[in-house]
Specification:
Length: 710
């Protein structure tokens, strides 16, 4: 290790320590929030110090809840930038035996159930979060009920139980806000917070689902309790109340309606059968948060603001990236109704195996964006990015039919978001990798195998032995195995890779000759409107993301200070009037959107300017020139692969017909002090693998369910 690397390691350690201290303080605030100590001592003291003519009461909320999270996000960007620049690969090669206790916590403890596959660590944090919610609700009730007496309720014309119902309804909403504060973190794809926890947005979707169910359960209970309270106290007209200087009930009801629409359409059965309905109704989150802020006021909404603020930054950056059409080079058609799309990418764009991108094809649907796992390797293909689209739905089938139609096609418009993926390749630390796939679940394993091939060629440390178990419905799906090796004119030797493949065709008892047809490839003409894929500012440039977050928030604070000092403060303190809460909230939201749009837009423009020379050099690539029509560009892919060691690949592949793999036997017979078990495919298969690994009969199995998209 050089002196510079040692110093950078020390800087990263200091940054992580600082992040942990801020996180601990933030957690203490959440724990103390429902107590009388916080309300009567801590909060008044903080407000006395933070209150000013520039920020007012909102300043304390920004200081306690918003500033710590945004600080963690900015510091996390610097931490991840240093890790990317000076390499986290040293950590990758670490022997997991050194952290065997932690590995035990990563084993699945729940396999079947409403939560899906849950590891010990996930269950522990889930239990702690539920404990926080129970603690918050019980403490809120204890503090509020202590002040309720029959005499006090009688003065308001209420029974004691009605007063308690009113208090409980309010506290249900307060506890729901705890869940809402964390709801947007898992779906912020380019977040710097998730990588700090070793998470990706793809693997964190289930946390968003859990939080969403909790948010809507609590908010629905909050609304129903108030409706019952108003009905029993003859105040049903309160449902139509929009107070200019207090809580707006109408806004709360509109927010609840939007939330219920998203909640109902996100139920598994509706989401699977009517995906477009689920996709469109989920955009109601904008109206939900808009009416929520009008309901509670901007000062209190700042408690939930940081997660949503980071989400808005990420969402706008993704919007800017998606406006550019990607340079599609070719499409390779497979007999199993799958297609491999190859795009041109910027050489500076790097990504790790199992990364995903979201693609949009306007000719099929202008609104639909679908995630797909990248099958290429950025080390082996520095200027290409490939992904596999398998016909599993209407959109995928339309794409395959469009490309395989007899009509000529020289260009297909495609937009790209991403890539998104893990910060480093932890699977390489194992002695052996057992990869179990079903159908198109083999896609993420293609990128892993290519990474292992690259490391074996370049002698980049030890590489694990690989045992691939793949199950397909028909022999036509076996052509997916042809994608394990990249199309390249440069020969390479895979003899150093210890690879074994067991392929199972479950619905056929013998191979079919027609599946041996060559794979046709369509080459597309270059177009000046298309550009190579460049990374979103975030995972590909953490420093740019830190600049956007910090500068946009500073500009927001400046605008907020001007608004409070010259508009709100004079009215609130020099007249008998109070500045309307709704107007205050609307102006705050307008400032937030404007600051993010200006800073993110400027950063993207400057980044494009910096990459202009690089883009110019690779914009026009060498490609076959059609003699007659683009359809004549079809060629035999086998000719391209003559330089590849396909014979070696065939020698390590065994194909079995008419039966399913005996996963228990394969996993129990796996040799090595550390065996990483990766499962990707149908839920039933993943549950089976997870059950075997969690049984405890074999100590050297370390399970991971790979998130994939196809």
């Amino acid at each position: 290790m050089t002196k510079g690397e040692g110093m950078m390691k020390a800087v990263r350690a200091a940054l992580m320590l600082f992040i942990l201290v801020i996180s601990l303080g933030f957690l203490i605030i959440w724990i103390m929030m429902p107590t009388s100590t916080y309300k009567q001592k801590w909060l008044p003291s903080i407000r006395a110090k933070a209150n000013s003519t520039y920020f007012g009461v909102q300043g304390a909320t920004l200081l306690v809840y918003t500033f710590p999270v945004l600080s963690i996000a900015v510091l996390g960007c610097f931490y991840l930038h240093l890790g990317k620049k000076y390499g986290d690969h040293q950590y990758i090669q670490r022997n997991p035996a050194e952290s065997s206790r932690l590995a035990l916590w990563k084993r699945p403890v729940l396999v079947k159930g409403p939560l899906g596959i849950v590891t010990g660590i996930e269950l522990a944090f889930f239990a702690m979060f539920i404990a926080l919610l129970v603690w918050s609700f019980s403490t809120y009730l204890h503090v509020s009920f202590a002040k309720l007496t029959p005499q006090a309720a009688e003065k308001k014309g209420e029974h004691l139980w009605q007063a308690k119902l009113d208090s409980a309804a309010l506290r249900l909403g307060l506890v729901g806000n705890v869940c809402l504060a964390f709801l947007f973190f898992p779906v912020t794809r380019g977040s710097s917070v998730l990588p700090l926890l070793g998470l990706t947005s793809e693997s964190s979707i289930k946390y968003h689902i859990w939080l969403g169910h909790m948010v809507m359960t609590l908010f629905t209970s909050h609304g129903l309790c108030y409706i019952i309270f108003w009905a029993t106290t003859h105040q049903i007209s309160e449902m139509l109340k929009w107070d200019k200087i207090g809580v707006s009930n109408v806004a709360g009801e509109l927010a609840l309606v939007c939330g219920l629409a998203m909640w109902v359409t996100s139920l598994p059965r509706i989401r699977r059968n009517m995906f477009e309905l689920f996709f469109c109704t989920h955009y109601l989150y904008t109206l939900f948060f808009f009416f929520f802020v009008l309901h509670v006021g901007i000062s209190y909404a700042c408690i939930m603001l940081p997660g949503f603020y980071l989400f808005l930054v990420d969402r706008y950056l993704r919007f800017l990236q998606s406006r550019q059409r990607a340079r599609l080079v070719s499409a390779r058609l497979l007999p199993c109704e799958a297609v491999e799309l190859t795009f041109k990418k910027s050489p500076g764009l790097s990504y790790n195996p199992t990364s995903t991108v979201f693609i949009n094809v306007p000719s099929i649907s202008k609104l639909q964006w679908h995630p797909f796992t990248i099958s290429s390797n950025s080390n082996m293909d520095p200027e290409k990015l490939t992904l596999v689209v398998k016909g599993g739905g209407n959109w995928s089938q339309k794409l395959y039919q469009t490309l395989s139609s007899p009509s000529s096609m020289d260009r297909l418009e495609v937009s790209i978001e991403g890539p998104y993926g893990p910060a480093c390749t932890h699977f390489l630390r194992h002695d052996m990798l057992v990869m179990v796939s079903g159908g198109s679940g083999i896609t993420p394993f293609i990128s892993i195998i290519r990474e292992i091939i690259f490391r074996s060629i370049t002698h980049s440390g030890n590489t694990p032995r690989v045992f691939l178990i793949c199950a397909f419905r028909s022999s036509a799906d076996l052509t997916m195995l042809d994608l394990l090796l990249p199309v390249s004119s440069t020969p390479f030797d895979i003899s150093r890779v210890q690879l074994q493949i067991e392929a199972y065709v479950t619905r056929e008892k013998e191979p079919k000759a027609e599946n041996q047809k060559p794979l046709p490839t369509i080459w597309f003409k270059p177009n000046a409107a298309d550009a190579p894929i460049s990374g979103i500012l975030g995972p590909n440039s953490w420093l740019w993301l830190s600049m956007i977050i910090s500068s946009s928030f500073i500009i927001f604070l400046l605008l907020l200070g001007i608004l409070n000092r010259y508009c709100i403060y004079p009215i609130d303190h020099n007249t008998n009037k109070i500045y309307p809460f709704s107007s205050r909230a609307l102006l705050n939201m307008l400032f937030i959107f404007a600051c993010i749009a200006i800073t993110a837009g400027a950063a993207v423009h400057w980044s494009k300017k910096q990459n202009a020379m690089e883009t110019k050099q690779i914009q026009n690539i060498d490609c076959p020139t059609p003699i007659t029509s683009p359809r004549s560009w079809f060629h035999n892919a086998d000719r391209e692969l003559e330089s590849f060691p396909h014979q070696s690949l065939l020698q390590v592949t065994k194909v079995h017909y008419g039966r399913r793999p005996d996963l228990k036997r394969f996993l129990f017979e796996s040799e090595g002090s550390s065996v990483g078990v990766l499962a990707c495919g149908p839920k039933k298969m993943r549950h089976e693998v997870a059950t075997i690994c969690s049984s405890g009969l074999v100590d050297n199995l370390y399970f991971e369910s790979i998130s994939f998209s196809w």
